[in-house]
GTPase Der
Amino acid sequence: MKPVLALVGRPNVGKSTLFNRLTKSRDAIVADFAGLTRDRHYGNGKQGRQEFIVIDTGGFEPDASTGIYKEMAKQTQQAVAEADVVIFVVDARGGLSAQDHDIAKYLRKIGKPTLLVANKAEGMLEGIQLTEFYELGLGEVIAISAAHGQGTRGLVELAFELLNLPDEPEETEEDPAVIKLAVAGRPNVGKSTLINTWLGEERLVAFDMPGTTRDAISVPFEKQGQKFELIDTAGLRRKGKVFEAIEKFSVVKTLQAIESANVVLLLLDAEQGVTDQDAHIAGYALESGRAMVLAVNKWDAVDEYQRQLVQRSIETRLPFLSFANMHFISAKKRQGLGPVWGSIVQAHKAAMCKMSTPILTRLLLEAVQFQSPQRGGMFRPKLRYAHQGGMNPPVIVVHGNSLEHVTDSYKRFLEARFRKAFDLSGTPLRIEMKTSTNPYADKDSS
């Protein structure tokens, strides 16, 4: 599992700037859930070969008891509970405040591994101005400038040292015969009901392996001879083993389950339609390249008019999942569950599909003959041959000349033809264009 770093601190100390620096993007939010936009954002970071998740939080007032500040405190406490290492950010130029003392007291009480970071310290990295922060009792003060990138790499290295991470991430061997399935969705959509229905029906739960409080649980089971590994995000744990401070819905657990899976079953609620949370979860799964199946739960609880509204909302809000098979089910009444398994197996098969270079090239040339790409400037793109560049998701690499002028609409045209030829329903398909270089381009033509 990727380590999780949570950024906490009072408002305006530069947490968001540090978040963007660590994720190497101004818009690196991978899960911005409705109702949490003010308080908790999640992004992916990478240093060397080690990937990690960063949580950005709103301003933290541990003792807030009313209004938005109470909700912000609750969201920050959730982030701290989900984190492996807490990065407590203070303002090197603004100095120490009473609120910093309150936050430090809370963090000492929690006992999570914590790094105290003085941000905005450009030009004063060796200055004595930072000595006052030692009053917080959180050890060494790490001076950085998130805006200028000073000290941020060393900060991440220190976080890794606290976790005793290996120099190189371990690569575990996976059984290709086992399909890793994650059931994802927002709270109260029926994930637990669906999972319990499956497991109760099959009675093939060999064991459950709870990790830390934030980890997804892996449950092996079998259906019609096919082995699955269910990566649960629904809090399927024995009572008494749940850390009560953590909400039932853990965003980190959902993101990690998606990344660990081969196939993601996105569960929607027919009574609620498609919400922002659904769209963000779907977007993250697509960004991760996961094969997907859509299931609309509680279909028995809505009338015909509501059903039409739900289908329309899926078409308008999740058009990027048009490749995924969709099913209408009732987990509670065990209706419509059978065909879901077929779609899961099909999606996994498509994600792991092997495509030969001769067939891909023939399909490419046939597509060009049927419809040539538009001319870009003085040149028309020339598509010469294609080969497979990866699996899960499938990647097709197209070689030729002037391919930077190939439009997105033409890529979608190619994608549709490749999908039809190889029956790639249920998986994203990525098409990469590689232009051949002209060896004489830099030479004097005279």
The chain has a mean pLDDT of 80.
